[in-house]
Amino acid sequence: MSMNYILFDSQYRTDLLPLTFTRPVAAIRIGILTIAEKWVQHLNADVSYLTQPYLQQRFALNVSSDNILINGSVLPDDACVAAILALQPNEALMAGQELIALRLNEQAVHTFDSNKAWEGKTVSLPASPIVIKRVYDIFTKNGDALLYDFQKITAGRISEKIPAGTQVVNPDLIFIEPGAKVDFAILNASTGPIYIGKNTEVMEGSKIRGPFAMCEGAGLKMDAKVYGPTTLGPQCKAGGELNNVVMFGYSNKGHDGFLGNAVIGEWCNLGADTNNSNLKNTYEEVKLWNYRSEKFEKTGLTFCGLIMGDHSKCGINTMFNTGTVVGVGANIFGSGFPRNFIPSFAWGGAQGFETFQLTKFYKTAEAMCARRNIQFDETDKAILQHVYTESQRFRFWEKEN
Known about the structure:
By secondary structure, the chain is an alpha/beta fold.
C-alpha cells in the first residue's frame, strides 16, 4: 500500500493572514510553484490538506491507515524528502525546534494539533529547509525558491527557441515553454534564471531581469520593466514597473505604476497608475500589521511594500504607503494614502470606509471570474462568507456606527 501524504497548516497560519484566509498554507505560491505543487513533484504522489474546517470542502483531506503529515510552511529539498521517506510510525522529523513532518495512523491524524509540541520519538534534520513563517518571507525568499524550482522543472529538458529580435543575456538560464510568445523583449538572466511558462505572452519592449517566472497563461504588457526575484502566477497580467513581486494567480496590474516588495493574492485588480512605496523616507525598519498580535510588528526589513489578500481591488492612482496590508475582498479608491492596515471587505480609502456588502461583492467576484471562464461557485461563497464574519471585528467603522 502506497504512503498517504497530508500537508498540514503550520503554527504560522495566523501570521500568514490575510493570504491564508482563503487557502491552506501549502497553497501559497513562491518561486514558480505552490508549496503543495513542489511536494507533489518531489514525492511523485498526490497530496491532500489538513487545514481550517471552512476550507476543507475546497481543499480536501484524505486519510488512510498510514500517513505522513508534512508542515505546509516547509519548502522541500532532496535531503528533507529523503529524511521524511525514512520516517517510522509515530516518529517525527525535526529541524531544531521546527516540526517538519511526522508519520501517524488514521486515528492520530484526527487528533493531531500543529500548535502543540510533539512529545513522541523524533529524528533530526541536520540542515534546515526554507520555512515560510511570515507574509514577507514570500518575497524575501522568492529568489531561492525560484532558482530551485527552475532547476527541477527544466532538468533534462530543452527550451523552445528564443525568438528572433529578442535580446538575451546568459541564455543558458532562460527557459521558454511551448506556446509562449515573446516579441522584441530584453531577457537578462545574468542575475538569475528566467522562466517563461506555457501559453504566456511577453509583449514588445518588455525588459526582464532575473530571477523571474511567469506561469501558464500569464502576460506582460508593452514596455513592462521587471526586476527579480518576481513571479507572475497563472493568468496574471502585469505592466509598468515591478520589483521583487509575487502574484499568486488570476490577478491584474495591467498599467503603468510601481509595485515593489509585494505579495498579491488571487483575483486582485490594481487600477492604472497604482503605486506602492517600498521604502520609508527615513530609511527606518518597516513595521507590518500582524493578525496574531493584532498590531504592527517590526519586520527587520528596509524594503517592504504591499500585501494584498484575494479578491481585493483598487482604483486608478491609488497610493499605498510602505508596509501596507490589505485584507480579502476590499475595494480601495480615492485620493491620498489609505491607512497601512485595511480590513477585509473594506470599501473606501483615505477619506474613510464603509463595508463592502457580500451581495455586492459576490457580483464583482462572479464578473471577474467569468472573464477567465471560471465559475465563482457556492463553495467560494461559503469560504468568503466565513472570512467576512471572521474579519468583522477588524472593521472598526462598524463599531462606530
